[in-house]
Every structure is written in C-alpha cells, then in structure tokens.
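Tutorial, part two.
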Amino acid sequence: MRTRTAGADLLAGLSIAGLLLPEAVAYSGVASLPPQAGVIALFAGLLCYGLIGRSRVAIVTATSSSAAVLASATLTLGGGDLALRLALASILVAGAGAAFVLAAALRLGGLSHLIARPVLRGYAFGLALVIAVKQWPHLVNLHTQATGFFPLVAEILRAHPSWHWPSLACGLAALAGLMVLERVPRMPGALTVIVGSILASSWLNAQGVALTGPIHLALGMPALALPAGVDWLALAEFSLALMLILFAESYGSIRSFALKRDEEVQPNRDLLALGVANILCGLLQGTPVGAGYSATSANAAAGARSALAGLYAGAVVLTLVLLFLRWVERIPEPALAAIVIHAVSKALRPGVFADYFRWQRDRMLVVAAVLTVMIFGVLNGLLAGIAFSLALLLKSLASPRLSVLGRVGAHDYVSLARFAHAVSTPGVLIVRPEQPLFFANAEPLLAQVRQRALAAPDTKLVILSLEESPDLDSTTLEALEEFCSWLAARGVQFRVARLKELAREALLRAKLAHLPASALDYSSVDDAVRGEGVSPTQQA
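Running the prediction step on this input gives:
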C-alpha cells in the first residue's frame, strides 16, 4: 500500500514540476522581483509545507495574487527605487511569515473568515483582470509608466503603434498552446510550451523577442533593517494585508480539497507551516508563498496521495534547475506572460457570480469587490472590499427588525406578521429581535418595544425572546436596565425567554433593577406566558 502511494506521489510530483518552475519564474515578474526570487520561494514553500503542513495535496509556492499584492506594497512604499523595493520585499514577506506564526500561536485558524466569500470571489476576478492587463506590456515588449488599471489600459491602447508584433505572436501562440494542452489528461502543458519556446528562442531573439535572462541562485541573507525614511507602521500594515490574502487564498484551496477527499483540516498547523515558509522566503529574498488553487488542483488531478508529492516535485525542479538553468534563462518573456494570463484566466469566469444575483444576496458586495481592485489597486482594493463587507454587515445588524409573536397550537409562538392564523395573548406583548442585540441596535429595538407597549394600553406583561443573542454587551445591559425601569414605572411585568448561557450569566452579574433572576429562567416563550420558570439546576 505504501509503495503504491509513493508511486502515485512520484508521478504527481513529476507531472506538476513542469508547471511549477515556469510559474515561479513568471510570478517573480508579477512581484517586480528578479526571476530567482520565485525559484527560491518554490523550494522554500514546498519544503516547509511538506514537512509541517497537514494537507495531502496542497502545493505551497508563489501565487499570482500575493505577488501582485507585494508589487503594489513595494511600489507604494519604495516608489521607483529598485534597491529599496527589493529590501522592502524581503521585510514584507518575512513580516507576513511572522504574522502567520503569531496567528498560529494565538490559534486564530478561523482568521480567513474575516474575508467574505463574495469579497474573495470579486477580488479574485478583479485581480485576474489587473494581472492580465499588467502582463500585456510583456506580450508586446512595451515599456509603460502607468500603474493603475484604467490609466494602464489607456496607455497600452495609445501605444498600439509601438507594439512588437513578433513578441505578441509568440505570446498568443503560447497562450493557445496552453489552452489546448490543458484538455489533454496528465499532459504538462506549461512544460511543453516552455520547451517549445526555448527551442525557438534563438530565432525569436533574433526577431527582437526578449528572453528571461540570467538567474542567480546565490542564497544571500538580507539585512532585515528598516530602510531610512520608511514608516514601520506602514510596513506592519502591508505585511498583515499580505498575510490575510495569502491565508484566505491558501485556506480556501486547502479546505476545498479537504472536503472533496474527506480529510480533516488543521488551520492552526497550516498557519504555522505558511509562517515558517514565508519567513524563510523573506530571509532568502524570495517571493511570498501560499497554497494557490491552480497548483493544488493540478497536484490533486495528477493523483497525489500525500504531502510527499510536493517534496518529489521540489526534487524534480531542483534537478531541472541544476542541469538546465541556462535553458530556463532562455524562456521568452511573452511565453511567461502567457503562463500568468492562463493561470489567472480560471478566475475570469462571470458564472461564479450567477448565484449571488439569483439569490439576490451580496450582489452589491461582489460588484464592489471587483471595482475596488480596479480603481484603488491590488492592495487597497482588498482592504476596501473587506471594509465594505464589514460595513454592510454592521448596517444589517444595526437595522432594527422586531417580530411580535402570537400563539399557534397549544405551545408554539410564531410571528404574527408571517402567520395570519397566530393569536395574540390578551394583556401580553411578546417580542423577538431578529438580530443579536448589541451596542448598535439595542436602544432602537427596545424603543420599538416601548412603542408597541404604548400602542396597547392593556399590556400587563412584556416577554422578550432573546434566542438570537448569544451574549450581551455593556451597552445592551444598560439599555435593558432603562427599559426594565420604564416598564416597572407603568406597572408592567417583564420576563426574558430562551436565554443563551452567556447572555444569562451577563444579566445575572449585572443584577439589573426590576429584573430578578427568576425572570430569566424561562426555557420557552410558552413557559414565560404561563409563568412556569425553570431553575438553574433544572436547566443544567
């Protein structure tokens, strides 16, 4: 059995090695780093995750999104100074690794859930557009000045008379080859295209097509000292943003394939593995690394059964680098650009947004996530998308929605607005907030209850069902105390039903005036109406 597994992993490693090496070189360009940065990161990511990580199929290497985020961050902080940008890149990658390790130590494995799926999908779509457009100058051998998406598109179109047509023909031929070969099972399309372009490199270079150029794999240890004039707080913020997008992308890939293969996910262990890998990449001047979907899916499709597949792939790539490095240096730049465009094209599928429009949920959010990347840039676009999603969440939670309940059958209480046959209980007002009570909505919701009580002068008892509230903050406790006092002044009783444990403990500690402990022990609305409380001993 072990022999069979090792054989399958070896075949998978051989299959994906041809994809990983050219992608690593190509993503170095996306990150505005020398070609060797991606190769170094490839070895660091495969080795560290293979030894520490827990996913059987995840391939940790340079990714297009993290490379684009790094390029945007270094451009923001370092401007056009290439030496400064290289120094900042090492600090940012190592800083992202340190943030991963800290998050692992604090067991923050659910951190990726800060980024909603519509934001992530919209961001991935917008990012793919940005990356594809930024690769176009490499396809046509054009030197551009603009950095923003729309200014760059305008500059490329204005400069169309200067496009280098042999370079464009080379890139389009490589892109067509990749699209055709991806339909052939177990065919290393990227490697096939790269080999073909290398064989034609002498003729292409004679036509003016640029080649990759020298790759220096000397492992120089950078001095991770803060360059003069650079704000350390800005560096920390960019490192955290880089870590967030890496983990969101990586955990999305790891979780997707774990569900397909019935495997257990260990996010905190993966945080540690990604942290160590990125620290090592920062020290060795490599690009940031994560578990990209394209490489991971290629590994799974190749039949990988354990993490050994990634280690085998690393060994194969090392062999290729040691024996054929001079050939790798002859890869035409338009072919590398075609590999990047082909890799990100999988995210350029509008169909992934269809469900949001069909469900009529998060349509504005997913469109905003696409536009923010295109308008504000790769890094600020991600942060703007996250901020927009959190703002929409707070708006939803802060919008008071209150249901008045009535009885159906012998014991059940449901919304009077939804169920026309529900019956109100004379003298009793039963209300249920449809969101968790917290500082932004507690006072408006209780104000609505006051209005309901005033509209029914015969009300002798108010019952508040708090089944939607797992806990209560201090603002909510103060608002409830004021509400209890208001009811007591009018001779109206107050009971709370369906309390969660943390919320009940908070109310007991608060010892609110006019809200005795006996008013909290109603396990159902029906018990509260009947006045049949349940003691804490009975609840336990």
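The first strand starts at residue 60 and ends at 62. In part three we will examine how such features are distributed along the chain.
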